Amino acid sequence: MAVNTNGTKNPLLIEVQDLKTYFFLHEGLVKAVDGVSFEIREGRSLGVIGESGCGKSVTAQSLMRIVPSPPGREVGGKILLHLRSKDSNVEEVVNVLELPPNSAKMRSIRGKKIGMIFQEPMTSFSPLHTIGSQIMEAVLIHEKNIDKKTARLMTIEMLARVGIPNPQRLVDAYPHQFSGGMRQRAMIAMALVCGPSLLIGDEPTTALDVTIEAQILELIKDLQEEFGMALMYISHDLAVVGQMVDEIMVMYMGMTMEYAKTDDIFDDPLHPYTVALWRSIPKVEGKLERLRPISGTLPSPYAVIPGCPFFSRCESRMKGVCDAALPPLIEAKPGHKVRCFLYGTSSAVSQGNDAAGNN
Amino acid sequence: MTESTKTPATTPVAKPEAVNLEDAVLVGGKVSAEERFYYASQWELIRWRFSRHKLAVFSLVVLVIIYILATFAEFFSPYTVDTRFDGFQQASPSKVHWIKPGGGFGPYVFAVKRELDPKTFRFHFKEDTSQIYPIKFFVRGERYKFWGLFYTDWHLFGIDGKQPLLLFGADKIGRDVLSRTLHGARISLSIGLVGVMISFILGVILGGISGYFGGVVDDVIQRIIDFLLAIPGLPLWMTLAAALPRDMPTLQLYFTITILLSILGWTGLARVVRGKLLQLREEDYVLAAKGAGASDWRIITRHLLPGFTSHLIVSLTFNVPGMILSETSLSFLGLGIQPPAVSWGTLLQDAQNLVAVAQQTWLMIPGLWVIGTVLLFNFVGDGLRDAADPYSR
Amino acid sequence: MANTEEPLLEVRDLKKWFPISKGFFQRGVGYIKAVDGVNITVQPGETLGVVGESGSGKTTLGRCITRLYEATSGEILLRVGDRVLDVTKIKGDDLKLFRRSAQTIFQDPYSSLNPRMNILETVGEPLLVNNIAHGRELEDRVTEMILQVGLRVEHLRRFPHSFSGGQRQRIGIARALVVQPKLVVADEPVSALDVSIQAQVLNLLQELQDKFQLTYIFISHAMSVIRYVSNRIAVMYAGRLVELGDKTEVLTHPRHPYTEMLLNAVPRFSERRVIKRGVTRGEPPDLGNLPPGCVFVARCRYAKEVCKTTPPELRDLGSGTIASCHLADELELTGIRGAAV
């Protein structure tokens, strides 16, 4: 399947529309994801940037329907997965949210169509079984007509592809015998062995040393090209994400704040949060300036905030406007979406001093 | 994807006003409740969380009631431990009725006559509905010495008349099972507490040494524990108990049994203490205290010990029912407390044969009390354990 | 701020080996050489950034310097007043004096505070155990300190669970500084914090350094943070010091192949959607089983025969840089060009 990696209109793979995932806790309601929309096309990549509590991990978990439930639950929106058969003739569009999380269909999507890798490789592997047997299990579950011998060969091949030395021997090793970097590679092997169309990485290199991280990032990039896979890369590390993806979505308090091509996010950030984030992180290049921390603190996850969630910390906030209504996500420039009243509003609520002449 | 049809702009279309940035304020918080949370020490937090476990709280209340009953057993029982009622051997429990014939509401029993059934050669007690004995509260009954301090004869309830009130029936020589159960609770429940206290001291000291100093000391103590745990419990007790002289006075016997039970019980606690210590030693705040120049003693008492006091309490709560069960088992087998001293175990000796179980089922009531008490302790322990979990995250 | 004053701290050939015991009788079968011969000097008032990955020994080094670990061999000389103390050997009163002169800031805000002590007790403890202050005076000094780090008076009697990660780190900083030390070892003080909070704490540390004339040894694995805070940078690998020099020099013109690998592995904003190929390879060595020659030989793209057999010495290469590489004179290594200040 020839995939146009720098073309603009590869076929749609996954469309998320207004996703809402809430956690119903004893202490209150946490709106972990509160209206997130994005799309990923085949072979393309999306980075999700945000700090802890912004909802980026829960978004990924919702895609895979692995949100712990109770107490969490998807309460709104759609996740449209475009499934294509091998010859890309027949397309089936499935709303993943309509599938019960444990249904056969969802289980066949999970692992076969969408693979996921996590921050801590140990949580993916059972310490009681060999790496090989666990990867083989993934193969045997998803591919119906394969015998154990073939599955083992596929596993060894995959281990070799992710750069594990002596795969024929290490296929029978246990997770604790692997180093951190090796375990991460093994986890990638397990996620990719069935050839999914989308790979989701939830902070996959955050726990790794920088020199190992570089190798893993290289590996993911190579595999993405080789398999023609789409990639969704979640991280708090802006620099890493910048190297890996074509588009970036910035999240804050469960909502999309900005969504644009990588170059646009770095060269022309629009949302005050993105700008503030940029100014607050130390960099290895460029002028050495005093860091400007984002003032204030994250609001409580139980708080009900009318208006923009970033209002309390925003340097450009407009009283009476930004705290009165939630800004909608608008396309301020072609292909560059932002949720901020500074850039005007749509036909949604606008009160008092508003953007001049754009209604 | 929702899109607007606005003309795109790269510069903000609205000018933000100059603002003074103050700290973000939590929206919609109840200040007083939050403040209380912030100032709450660990113990208060544990109490709060514990109180959310309805079952644990209920169990704790019931346990306290049972201990009160045991402490003041003479008051709560209608009779003393060895009062015998001739003609009422193996009597079944008195039936309590509430609506009086001729009107009136209140608990009472009928007079009973003992009759011999010609076919089964068993006695059964027929109610004579012509005579009723109302159950009265705060009656004066048999004399007893209240805690060895003074003589009194107040009881919580009883009946006037020649007939005994046998709410739990009578045993084969006509003694009231209820009174004996309540009195027996004293020994059974207190052995649990005393025994656990001894285990506690042994366990904390030895486990503490093991965990804090490590090295050879740790190895030696751990091997001792392994050895002790490898010995089969019941045969060991039986041997030790059989070696005790039969005519030992009850009090001495009581303490010997307690010590025997504790010797084996401390090992579990020592392990818990050691494990916790090993974990806590690595916490950064312990290192920080060391870096500040705190002495070993201060580190142990202020930084390490408080770290597992809550776990110790949970451990203790789970150990007590074990002790109670052990004492009950030993006494039941005739190896522990000996009659005429009364504990739940000795009471159950009466229920040791099939005939008793089938025909005088009420003799097993002490067993129900054992089960109940053990369950209650376990529920409380569960609640404590959930409440005491690390809360620093 | 590398001046020619007398150094505040001098570390000479420091080694910290942890014995490995195996078997039923816990026989010693070898050592994990966490720190294996490190020489460093630190000038008063500067920030020495110590960078390295896991297993590099940077945390162990920090803990030896503050005597949280006992060194296996070597000397650590700290200038206190007009005396020089050898940290590895001091006892009694000297040890107490040392504790007031050097303190540590820890990495994990969630395990560095005793959850059962409130802030007054935690920050006051160093004053208490060193008999510096009691009662009212202690409370005043603690109050002053927590105000300096940006907390408020009403926080004094609260417990750690009511604070966020960033605030807890501030409390840890207050605790370290309340005795007015001269040297502060900050062990990854911002690594466990959210990105936008890191800046607050980094700025606070700089402010406090200026205000109290502190000398920092700042340990981190993040090159961007090291670049921001340091005057000089020390690079550690597998328990050895491989390079030490002026910040800009080390970042733009590294002299050790590991430094080059490290610098090139760091993701940069100027490289968008591009992954450099083959920048790094291999994994750190097993510290219980180090190779005979240079510790980096298995991963070094320039390795020659001599590297496999002989461990290199730390040499002065001019312009304030020392490095331990046999080939340092011949190699032209690339750093991060945009890192020049």
Count of DSSP strands of chain A: 12
> What is the CATH superfamily of the largest domain in chain B?
MetI-like
Q: Output mean pLDDT of chain A.
A: 86
What would you call the shape of chain A? Answer: globular
What is the CA-CA span between the terminal residues of chain A?
A: 45 Å
The helix/strand order of chain B is HHHHEEEEEHHHHHHHHH
**Structural class, from secondary structure content of chain A?**
alpha/beta
Question: Can you count the helices of chain B?
Answer: 13
pLDDT < 50 stretches of chain A: 1-5, 347-359
**Whole-number mean pLDDT of chain B:** 77
Radius of gyration of chain B: 30 Å
Q: What is the general shape of chain B?
A: elongated
Keywords:
heterotrimer, A: 359 residues, alpha/beta, 8-stranded mixed β-sheet, disordered C terminus, C: 341 residues, Rossmann fold, 4-stranded antiparallel β-sheet, 23% strand
What does this 3D model show about the protein?
The complex is a heterotrimer of chains A (359), B (393) and C (341). Chain A is built from ten helices and twelve strands. Chain A has helices at 56-64, 104-112, 131-142, 148-161, 167-170, 180-192, 210-227, 238-244, 262-267, 272-280, and strands at residues 12-25, 28-41, 45-49, 72-84, 91-95, 114-117, 198-202, 230-235, 247-252, 255-261, 330-333, 336-338. In chain A, strand 9 (247-252) and strand 10 (255-261) form a beta hairpin. The longest helix of chain A has 18 residues, at 210-227. Chain A is globular and about 65 Å long. Residues 1-31 of chain B have low confidence and may be disordered. Chain C is of the alpha/beta class. Chain C has ten helices and twelve strands. In chain C, helix 3 (119-129) packs parallel to helix 5 (165-177) and helix 4 (135-148) crosses helix 5. The model of chain C has no long low-confidence stretch (mean pLDDT 90). Chains in contact: A-B, A-C, B-C. At the A-C interface, helix 6, helix 7, helix 8, helix 9 and helix 10 of A face helix 6, helix 7 and helix 9 of C.
